[in-house]
């Protein structure tokens, strides 16, 4: 039922990858529909690489005229609806955000990413005012290093925390995550003789999915 969008005005922030990680993780336990609402169709491309997961469906959005009905339809069919958005503001992103119960904003640890994440928060706040309802959102640090944070990285973290909610869980930069785009499927389907660190990546993905569920419950009870 809940609709979760992945948004960021910065290209390459990690929207599609983070959506795949969450979608495949949630699909281990429940039904998920993912909507590819990016004209570049990277999510659809990923889905075409491997046989469909029994509880995960990936559909392509027909665009701004149909996104609202696509979301309604997906909500009636699946326990979670995830929407992968394009990396720039458009009527399509704005419609999808306005239909979302939660928006995840992936950001790296560079100033450009942080600026884009803060811009995206402002866009969501605008949408929320226009619709006269809260649209909860949180920043997800993605593509980060697992090493001790540098001063710049710490500075960026505190800037993001001042701007809005930030997930405790980070999705580190991991080969297992980026290789999903080549292999298709989820982390559990990766060939372990080919890809290192699959178990750590699964643990990272599980922590992320658990925190998403926790934040959703928190916002629904608020
Ligand atoms: N946690 C991660 N670990 C390793 N690589 C990552 C991670 N997140 C993203 N990447 C890589 O970074 C690149 C950009 O990621 P992705 O396509 O998810 O970003 P995006 O925000 O969807 O971009 P766009 O706006 O162009 O759609 C990809 O090559 C992807 O494999
Ligand atoms: Mg993308």
TrEMBL record:
InterPro entries xref list: DNA_Partitioning_ATPase, P-loop_NTPase, VirC1
Any Pfam family the entry gives: VirC1
Bilayer-spanning residue ranges: none
Source taxon at top rank: Bacteria
Protein name as catalogued: Chromosome partitioning protein ParA
UniProt source species: Marivita geojedonensis
């Amino acid at each position: 039922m809940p609709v979760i969008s992945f948004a960021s005005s910065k290209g390459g922030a990690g929207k599609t990858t983070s959506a795949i990680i969450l979608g495949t993780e949630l699909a281990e336990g429940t039904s998920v529909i993912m909507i590819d609402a990016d004209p570049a169709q990277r999510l659809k491309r990923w889905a075409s690489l491997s046989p469909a997961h029994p509880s995960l469906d990936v559909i392509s959005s027909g665009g701004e005229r149909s996104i609202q009905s696509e979301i309604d339809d997906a909500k009636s069919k699946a326990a979670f609806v995830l929407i992968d958005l394009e990396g720039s503001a458009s009527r399509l992103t704005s419609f999808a955000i306005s239909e979302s119960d939660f928006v995840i904003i992936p950001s790296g640890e560079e100033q450009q990413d942080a600026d884009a994440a803060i811009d995206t928060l402002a866009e969501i706040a605008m949408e929320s005012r226009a619709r006269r309802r809260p649209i909860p959102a949180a920043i997800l640090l993605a593509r980060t290093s697992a090493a001790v944070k540098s001063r710049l990285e710490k500075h960026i973290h505190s800037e993001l925390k001042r701007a809005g909610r930030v997930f405790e869980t980070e999705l580190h930069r991991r080969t297992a995550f980026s290789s999903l785009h080549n292999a298709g499927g989820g982390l559990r389907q990766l060939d372990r003789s080919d890809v290192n660190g699959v178990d750590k990546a699964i643990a990272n993905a599980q922590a992320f999915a658990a925190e998403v569920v926790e934040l959703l419950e928190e916002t629904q009870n608020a």
